[in-house]
Design goal:
Elements (H helix, E strand, L loop, with lengths): L12 H11 L3 H11 L4 H8 L3 H15 L4 H18 L7
Length: 96
């Protein structure tokens, strides 16, 4: 049976680029958040991004502190909320 690659991206590439800029994420922070949005664990993120698990956790802790959230779930909600705010601001029909 042939395995198919499932695209798990939450945002289009253009929307993600705009959101990364809006959130002022560094390239590595954006990579970690993107993996997090796909439901990956710290270990999976580390393997995918070729970094250590402590480095992933350092990025996450800095993001938690920066955005005033307590954990990865709140970080995900924060990212979605910012995306929605941008959608509402530009009159996107999906925001209704």
């Amino acid at each position: 049976m042939e395995s198919t690659l499932v695209d798990k991206r939450v945002f289009t590439p253009q929307a993600w680029n705009e959101l990364k800029q809006d959130l002022s994420l560094s390239r590595r922070q954006a990579d970690v958040v993107e993996q997090l949005l796909q439901g990956h664990s710290d270990k999976q993120i580390a393997r995918e991004l070729q970094m250590s698990v402590p480095t992933v956790r350092t990025h996450l802790c800095r993001l938690f502190s920066r955005f005033g959230v307590e954990d990865r779930c709140e970080l995900i909600v924060h990212v979605y909320a910012r995306s929605r705010e941008k959608c509402v601001a530009c009159g996107c029909p999906r925001a209704q």
